Amino acid sequence: MRSASKFPVxxxxxxxxxxxxxAQKLTVNYGEVQALKGASLSVQSGExxxxxxxxxxxxxxxxxxxxxxxxxxxQVLIDGQxxxxxxxxxxxxxxxxxxxxxxxxxxxxxxVVSMGRYGRLGPTRxxxxxxxxxxDEALERVDxxxxxxxxxxxxxxxxxxxxxxxxxxxxxxxxxxxxxxFAGVDKRSETMLVSLLRQLRDxxxxxxxxxxxxxxxxxxxxxxxLLRNEVLLSGEPGAVLAxxxxxxxxxxxxxxxxxx
Length: 260
Ligand SMILES: Nc1ncnc2c1ncn2[C@@H]1O[C@H](COP(=O)(O)OP(=O)(O)OP(=O)(O)O)[C@@H](O)[C@H]1O
Ligand SMILES: [Mg+2]
Known about the structure:
Elements: E1 19-30, E2 33-44, E3 47-52, H1 59-67, E4 73-78, H2 83-88, E5 92-95, H3 109-114, H4 129-141, H5 157-171, E6 175-179, H6 187-202, E7 206-210, H7 217-220, E8 223-227, E9 231-235, H8 237-240, H9 243-250
Parallel strand pairs: 3-7, 3-8, 5-6, 6-7
Antiparallel strand pairs: 1-2, 1-4, 8-9
Helix pairs in contact: 4-5, 5-6
The structure holds adenosine-5'-triphosphate and magnesium ion (MG).
The site of adenosine-5'-triphosphate has 12 residues, from strand 2 and helix 1.
């Protein structure tokens, strides 16, 4: 059973948990808009952390600040490395919210998944047999081998999400950042993604996942973070998602009921 302490994760292989994401006091301003204010959070190996907050609460901004793709005050360490180093070393894989991805880009599904291997390639930038095998295995695990030749934009929404998760699988990243991977996906894709995330978690990865699916969060995540441009609360999902906390985060209880 998982405890409700700050670092509640017991990994299945009983290895001591490692701090894979340490984000401290992240502040992001877009001109006049303060999208993120002093947000701190951590994710350990063997932990799925659910990021919850209403539209505009800064979830996507937090992912971008962690990846170092938007200017932020504060400090981020990914497996002890700066975001730039971590990206170079392939330690982190980021699946942006669909709206942030250019699907007209002329690359195939296999190309997208192969990008997960780029950090490992030598100066020739050529995929070796082991890279191709890792790409095939990742495609197989998300059931996209048959569609590997398709241009990425010619997949359905759920299939696209699976393609980007496959890129993270092929990469073997220690930390996965998934911005609303369940938005617009059907039950089959969702079940496949959840099962993959659990396998990765059990193999020692850390996962930070934003979702609006509050009803299923306690089942999926080991920890939860409630965001309203600042971190309101973090800890065990059942406690974080208590009605009074949801009212603070959303101004109402999105799960229904009287709220407080
Ligand atoms: N490039 C930008 N320029 C100016 N303001 C921005 C920009 N990106 C986001 N914002 C603003 O920053 C705030 C946080 O946005 P963000 O996209 O991080 O929210 P979110 O929690 O991901 O929302 P959603 O659930 O709708 O995806 C919002 O007020 C948004 O309007
Ligand atoms: Mg967002």
